[in-house]
Amino acid sequence: MLLTTRQLFEKCYGRYAIPAVNVFFMEEIHGLFAAAQEADAPFIVQTTPFARDYAHADMLLSMIGAAARIYPNVTYAIHMDHGYEAHIFDAIEKGGYTSVMIDASHDDFETNVARTKAVVEAAHAKGISVEAELGVLAGVEDDLTVDAEHSFYTNPQQVVDFVNATDCDSLAIAVGTSHGAYKFSGGQGLQFHILEEIQKRLPGFPLVLHGGSNVLPEVIERINAAGGQLKTDAKGVQEEEVRKAIPLGICKINIATDTRLLWTMVNREFFRDRADEFAPTTPGKIFMEEYKKFMLKKFELFGCTGKA
Ligand code: G3H
Ligand code: 13P
Ligand code: NA
Ligand code: ZN
To answer: What is the Å distance from ligand 4's center to 142 Cα?
Structure first.
């Protein structure tokens, strides 16, 4: 069943979180839907402007629509991740998304409010949910790189005014995570005191954690053992942090880096070990299987297995 993120969050708040995964190509979509059907777990499939530029929005939405027919027993939302007005208004007009994110977090507070509010009005008129963002994450997202000095945590003093002024349905917050493989290079981890302050002021209101990848050291090691040259100080959100964040109102956890690393690992190992192969479908099949296993583990960790 295709739902809005608002509908999904009404059921999960404080009890479990829903993985929101960025997709770029067919094998990921198969792996995701297959895992969700098997686990009976809700999920959010999301596309960034980068993904839309790469594959084309029609291609992505068509593949997602096909997956919904192939795997009919799934509960999910289709979300636009890190959208800007051009993409969002196009998507609202053409349809296909049940949820959009307006990321005006790099603007000052008043501009963020104004841009978010305009998107909320247009989206709500079509029954589409809106995620907004307050605070700036470090790291790489699309073609924008934010260094640590220009990132800042969400100010808990601003969250009530922001939500009231914009009428957004969920709020992405900056509480120590960053985008990409090289998070927490200072080792600081999730800032729970800030998350607690935010949740206290917005009880019952769905919060979103960007930069939610785990970046398993074993995966980095395997990639490097198969010819990769990734930095080994990569570190992501730890499992204990996820478990602690859910009762504090984190309803949606975004994942893109982990599945990219998985693709890199599967393909590097495949072409290292099977130098005589050249059929894309052979590593493709392995990747789909590994992706499915990866998602089954995330559903367990996020507590959403059996909740669809
Ligand atoms: O914002 C987070 C995602 O990691 C962005 O991924 O820009 O490559 O689609 P993408
Ligand atoms: P990661 O880079 O941790 O996968 O974060 C993804 C994200 O926040 C997408 O919006
Ligand atoms: Na998002
Ligand atoms: Zn993000």
So the answer is: 9
188-227: pLDDT as tens digits = 789 999 999 999 999 999 999 999 999 999 999 999 999 9
- 30: Cβ–Cβ under 8 A, 6 or more apart, which residues? 67, 70, 288, 291
167 annotated active-site = no
* Amino acid letter for position 196: E
Residue 179 labelled as part of a binding site: yes
- The ligand minimizing its distance to the Cα of 44 is 3
Spot the catalytic one: 40, 53, 58, 81.
81
pLDDT tens digit string along 94-152? 999 999 999 999 999 999 999 999 999 999 999 999 999 999 887 766 666 766 666 78
- Rounded Cα distance between 263 and 35, Å, is 16
212 is in an annotated binding site: yes
Q: Which domains does the chain have, with CATH numbers?
A: 5-302 (3.20.20.70)
